[in-house]
Amino acid sequence: MRIVRKIFKWIGIILGVLLLIFMVLLVVPEKETIKSIQPRESTEYWEMNEGFKIAYTHLEGIDSLNKSPVIFLHGGPGGYIHSSIIKTLERLTRKGHHVYLYDQRGSGLSDRFDKYSDVTFEKHLLDLHEIISQKIKTPQAILIGQSFGCTIINHYSARYPKTVEKIVFGSPGAFKPAREKNGAYVDLDSVYPTPDSLNLIDPYNYTKDVNTVAKKPKMIVAVLGAHFLDKKIISDKQMDRMLNTLITDVVKGVVCDPKNALPEEGGAGLYAYIGTNSTDYPEIRDQIKNVQTPIMVLHGQCDFISYAASFEYVDLYPNAHYKLIENAGHEIWWEQEEVYIKEIMEFIE
To answer: 322 by DSSP, 3-state: which?
Structure first.
């Protein structure tokens, strides 16, 4: 019995020490490795119907001749408008297009929310519709998506097809929800095998970096508080610092050559990432097949998103075509800006 008591005593001591370490890690402020994003001279704000602000940049079209405005949707979820894409898309204004680039709710320079549940995929769709119909007040818009931004656009096009003139899907994220057949997930690589002629290249794998952040005490507590209490037990500032730090490594995987990765600009929204990914995505594939909007899908040779995931967009939309961009990764314009903007300009013009 004495030995048993000693064993339980040591177990209690070990658990107590582990709990103490966990609590210390929880209260120690997250180091600010990247300065938080600051408003630019071009930054403006929309006051949304729900009572919060969305930050955006408006690039005014030159000699606009009633051309449809262009709206850019960034990646993520929890991403933001990087200054590089503002510079790149500014060239569309020379063709007379007004260009709008906005930070999605809960990220970038847009407002954060008190409740975790205030950022969902459905709310992203409603925000885009409010921007098109009430803020810009245009009957039709040209939508350019990047990664997760493409997911918002494809669901939006299924719901409001008449408001979309053309779509550019840049490095589209896998179509959501994942395709199923007879209750099992479909292996898209077997449905859309990669043509050998594309010579696709695997970029830097950042999975290990993501897993390291996922195991941090702050992340564990934040996720539990969010899912079970709908509260942000860990502040947005602490959470965003974690994601900003992570992205400094992740960006090495969004280019062909890590040397071409641009500096992180500190606009990440980690609760927006968790909240959006935790919500359901309705099945829309049958609706997509009826969308007649002209579509272009751009896919980088070094993109970590598979050919099959990108090509599913081409297969589903009846008026879509695929374009490989050589020597480019997930953020195509970082390495092939001239090719990226040339393809877009020729397509929308």
So the answer is: strand
pLDDT at 295: 98
| pTM of the complete model | 0.92
Length of the chain: 349
CB 303 within 8 A of CB 336: no
Based on the number of CB atoms within 10 Å of its own CB, is 162 exposed (0-12), middle (13-18) or buried (19 or more)? exposed
Assess contact for 213 and 238: CB atoms under 8 A: no
CB 166 within 8 A of CB 293: yes
Q: Scanning the structure block, which residue is given the tokens 């969902």?
A: 120
- From the centroid of its chain, how far is CA 274? 11
Residue 72 near residue 150, CB atoms below 8 Å: no
Strand boundaries in the chain, DSSP class E = 43-47, 53-59, 70-73, 99-102, 141-146, 164-170, 180-181, 184-185, 295-300, 320-325
Work out the burial of residue 104: count CB atoms within 10 Å of its CB; fewer than 13 is exposed, 13-18 middle, 19 or more buried: buried
Here the tokens at position 135 are 């803020």
Degrees (nearest 5) of the Cα angle 91, 85, 112?
A: 135
Asked if residue 348 lies in contact with residue 166, where contact means CB atoms within 8 angstroms, the answer is yes
Q: What is the DSSP letter of 132?
A: I
Q: Is residue 152 classed as helix, strand or coil in its secondary structure?
A: helix
Are 346 and 321 in contact by the 8 Å Cβ rule? The answer is no
CA distances from 215 to 15, 171, 208, 233, 322 (A): 18, 28, 11, 16, 38
Model pLDDT, residue 221: 87
As a whole number of angstroms, the distance between CA 199 and CA 176 comes to 26
pLDDT, tens only, 224-233: 888 888 999 9
- C-alpha 104/C-alpha 272 separation (Å) is 9
pLDDT, position 227 = 87
Query: What's the rounded Cα separation, in Å, for the pair 205 and 331?
Result: 15
Sheet containing strand 70-73, strands side by side:
43-47, 53-59, 99-102, 70-73, 141-146, 164-170, 295-300, 320-325
* Token couple for 144: 């350019």
